[in-house]
Amino acid sequence: MPTINVSTAAYSRVVTQPSHAAARGAASGQSTNITGQAANAFSYVAASGGRGLSYSIYRTFLYFDTTAITGTVSAASVNVLGYSSGGGRRILVPSTAFGGDGQSAIAGSDYSALSFNTNYNNNVNGWNTSSNNVFTLKATALSDMQTDDYFICALIEYDHDFSDSAPATAVSNIFGLDATTSSDIYLDYTLTGGGGGPAGVAEVNGIATADINNWNNTVWGDIDSINGIT
């Protein structure tokens, strides 16, 4: 199965807000790239204070370069190496961060560059803290991957951030991830009919065509034949 390593991982946050609405609905936050282990990559925290709860939200944004995908995507998943967890559920949603096409650096305004109206996967309980976390993608995500030369998504806490549910008591749902290397976060996908390219070729030099993104600097899906085999 072909894979695409993440090009950029980043988070944006707002902290110590006076209300759930102020934290969730903020137009911008403090944003920075994730280049190693992030103990708080995305989260929802409602902390007890002298005058009630204060609210902090982190959101992680991922950009993948999908120019190598030229066929019809039949299945795909986003895979994230976990680091730490404080409980709660998580979900993957569409985003227009990084300039909307991956060509810009993460910005403060990217905190709100995400959609709450849909999602790319079903909400998932739990978080593996030292192994892979798999987000199996829905048809909407598959379509976006094959239509655009980029795939941008946001990892957010499900129970309160995505669901827009203000907690009655203190909450600390925190998720950590490891982005020490680009392969710690990756996208894998399957193309309809295998790896694209000449249908009569099952493998090249022992490599299955489903695992080939390009051959001799040519995108595999753009190759009509190899040694006369179509």
Question: Your description of this structure?
Answer:
The protein is mainly β and 230 residues long. It has two domains: 3-191, no CATH class; 195-230, no CATH class. The chain is built from three helices and 16 strands. The chain has helices at 20-24, 139-147, 158-162, and strands at residues 3-5, 8-17, 30-33, 37-49, 52-65, 73-85, 89-94, 124-125, 132-136, 150-157, 171-178, 185-191, 203-204, 207-208, 214-215, 218-219. Strands 1, 2, 3, 4, 5, 6, 7, 8, 9, 10, 11 and 12 form a twelve-stranded antiparallel sheet that branches. A hairpin with a 2-residue loop joins strand 4 (37-49) and strand 5 (52-65). The longest helix is centred in the middle third of the chain and has 9 residues, at 139-147. The chain starts with a strand and ends in an 11-residue tail after the last strand.
Give a quick precis of the structure.
With 230 residues, the protein is mainly β.
